[in-house]
Design brief:
There is one protein chain. This protein is mostly helical and 44 residues long. It has one helix and no strands. The protein is rod-shaped, with a radius of gyration of 19 Å.
Length: 44
């Protein structure tokens, strides 16, 4: 495996891992909002 192929594969894996992590965190925040909704009296 030459340097270009290795670099490109690391780029794809890194970007894919970042996007996957962001999707997981977004889903987790959505679930937590449904479990613990903000009540009307608690807003600023």
């Amino acid at each position: 495996m030459d340097n270009w192929t290795f670099g490109l594969s690391m780029l794809i894996v890194g970007m894919g891992g970042t996007l996957l992590t962001l999707m997981i965190m977004s889903g987790l925040m959505g679930v937590l909002k449904k479990l613990f909704p903000i009540k009307e009296g608690e807003e600023k």
